[in-house]
Predict the structure.
Amino acid sequence: MPARHIVMLAPFALAPKATMSARALPLAEALVACGHRVTLILPPWDDPAQSGRCWREHGVTVRNISLPRRFETAGIVHRLRAAVRAAAPDVVHLFKPKGHGALAALMLRGYPLVVDTDDWEGPGGWNEVNPYSALQRALFAWQERSLPARAAAATAASRTLETQLWGFGLAPDRVTYLPNGVTARRHGGWHAATQEAPALRRALGLGDAPTVLLYTRFVEFTPERAVATFAAVRRALPAARLLVIGRGFFGEERALLDRAHEAGVAEAIVHLPWVERDRLPAHLALGDVALLPYDDTLINRAKCSVKTLDLMVAARPIVADAVGQNREYLEHNVSGVLVPPDDPGALAPALIGLLRDEGRRRAIGAAARERVWREFDWARLVERAEAAYGRAARGPRGAGRRTQGVGADG
């Protein structure tokens, strides 16, 4: 593939949300390693301290537009559009057909556009979870449906999103399945983290207790179900502990701890709301078994969790509901254990079985690590993005380069 200049257009800053830091940036770094030039253009409305800041990160140019003082939405959209035009890319890759970035993309013409979707926003999705206004919900739902169909190509982080795009009228050859992946920079050296585990277990009061790990943002399941699962584990293995790493978007962890008090298992739970990235491998290594409870919802079917990849790199044996990307990442009884999502009692027996069988735990954890590096390394996945850019540059049905744009650029 010829070297290209790819502009990745963002809906928000690198942090606190993870789409750009955990998806776009690793892909950008892999593209640079393949000889391409990549510029990330971000509107840091959710991290104003980054306003106007530019730097290079592992060969990728990261450019935060300066936030306007007046007419915020219109000003951000105008500045994003101007930044893309100034960069003069060969391809524009829009991450999330949503918000400021999507509005800016609608105003561009003359640049092949690829739209990336990594979550479901509309009915049954995040529009019904996040505290958006009615106008925002309507806008996001319209953007999610209309913008991919206007683009030359689309990338989808999950199989569910892939089929959603087909349903919006995109031909299969315009849609590229592009799941989240791992990188040596982000995940290299994690295998050595187990050396710290004994001291860390003592510091957290876990001792030698069989430990279930719940690494989560609390949006995938109801607190009652998670607590009922752990309580069932405790009845079979009274010494078992639950290590919870993470916090919810809206304080959902409080509900889980309240239910744990009611169930009489709160004293067996250690909750760490936040662990720094450089300390995460050692903490994940504390879990003898990792629990991924996924209610069968459209959000869970559509998402592509980076946390699952973290657990696989850390060689944790995972017990998960067979929902969405869990079925793509994990091979049942080989690199993980999948249970039917319509059986609320299935998680506990699977956890108990693994906690009682160290040899099987080790084999499944090792297979998870081997699989994630073999199948989901960004150095391998980057070829899918390159193919999408090639299709976009050619245009739909063989149209010439730079004939596929969206909106007016007057």
User: Anything to note?
Assistant: The longest helix spans residues 358-375. The radius of gyration is 22 Å. The first strand starts at residue 5 and ends at 9. Residues 40 and 62 are 5 Å apart (CA to CA).
